[in-house]
Recover the amino acids of this structure.
């Protein structure tokens, strides 16, 4: 009997077939991204270069939550910010209704989706998934607006706070979570780096670049990481991450056009297609 179902393509036709990709996403946050790469034919090795945990103190966040009705806007720039802020809100006796008079701005669709799973909807999502776009396209006059910004405890970009302040807003920054460098490298990642079998390393934040370089000392010692990774393709999720890659690793080969994990996946697919075309006879 005739069928309209086409046979699955051979593995070698997939855009990332034969490529070993080291993924440096935080522990527990890399599985979906890794699966997208596997579906494109890649051999994925996970090397978490970031751990997310609670801040050193809840004091500033708890104080802000106790006075939440005094804020005009709540700005959340990551899924971590959403999760840790809301968990603390609920832990201190609040719920979604506590935010009924506060407008919520988020950076990125993932952040908005994370918020929605908790029963809340963003009032404003900037057109591009970066903090700069949030400032440039903010939907209302910021003069005398009071803004709560739960964020990473240290190491985050300061441009958002400075620019909002320059436009007349009062921005209250509070530590909602912190990012730390893991203490060790998974054996599979260590072997891959030592043997030089890694083709691509992906980075989704500047912090992962920084912590990867610290962890890599366990493999390469204090020698220049640039020499060891000179022939490795470095893939970045966006401009700020690329800047860190150039500073700490020495080069960037791929930068996502859309600053999301699907966007980074698409950039890798495009690179894989172009590479296959170049090497084809």
């Amino acid at each position: 009997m005739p069928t309209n179902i086409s046979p699955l393509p051979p593995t070698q036709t997939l855009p990332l077939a034969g490529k070993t990709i080291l993924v440096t996403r935080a522990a527990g946050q890399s599985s979906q991204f890794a699966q997208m790469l596997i579906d494109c034919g890649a051999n994925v090795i996970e090397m978490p270069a970031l751990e997310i945990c609670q801040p050193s103190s809840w004091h500033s966040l708890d104080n802000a939550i106790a006075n939440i009705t005094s804020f005009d806007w709540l700005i959340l720039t990551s899924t971590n910010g959403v999760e840790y802020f809301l968990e603390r809100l609920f832990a201190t006796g609040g719920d979604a209704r506590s935010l009924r008079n506060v407008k919520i701005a988020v950076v990125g669709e993932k952040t908005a989706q994370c918020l929605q799973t908790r029963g809340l909807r963003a009032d404003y999502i900037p057109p591009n998934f970066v903090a700069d776009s949030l400032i440039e396209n903010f939907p209302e006059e910021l003069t005398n607006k009071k803004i709560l910004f739960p964020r990473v405890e240290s190491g985050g970009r300061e441009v958002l706070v400075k620019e909002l302040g320059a436009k007349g807003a009062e921005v209250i920054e509070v530590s909602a979570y912190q990012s730390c460098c893991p203490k060790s490298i998974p054996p599979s990642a260590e072997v891959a780096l030592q043997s030089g079998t890694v083709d691509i390393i992906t980075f989704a934040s500047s912090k992962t670049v920084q912590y990867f370089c610290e962890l890599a000392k366990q493999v390469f010692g204090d020698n220049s990481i640039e020499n060891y990774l000179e022939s490795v393709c470095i893939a970045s999720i966006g401009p700020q991450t690329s800047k860190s890659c150039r500073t700490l690793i020495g080069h960037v080969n791929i930068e996502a056009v859309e600053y999301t994990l699907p966007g980074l996946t698409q950039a890798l697919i495009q690179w894989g297609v172009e590479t296959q075309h170049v090497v084809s006879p």
Q: What stands out?
A: Residues 53-180 form a domain with the Rossmann fold fold (CATH 3.40.50.10090).
